[in-house]
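We read letters as residues; the fold follows as tokens. A sample entry reads:
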Amino acid sequence: QVQLVESGGGLVQAGGFLKLSCAASGRTFSHYDLGWYRQAPGKEREFVAHIGGTTYIADSVKGRFTISRNNDKNTVYLQMNNLKPEHTDVYYCHAGSTPGDPDFWGRGPQVTVTS
């Protein structure tokens, strides 16, 4: 059974940083794209970043967020720096065998940035 288990969300003041982690299990993910989406209440899920054959980060967070992975640990990370209140969202980890088409999702940690 595939599981994506996230950690690292929480409450931070504007200008602060958080690092999200997502540990995948249930199969080998070395050939999968791993990454993150974000979603605010009442809004559509929005792409943030993924890493696999290529690395892609959304323009809205480029220069502020960094994505990395450790294939030995089947884990993907999202380093979020200089956070702003508009980055407050639920952040969902995903894994996909095809770029841009997630097959699996995590449950999503809440990230809250206060002003």
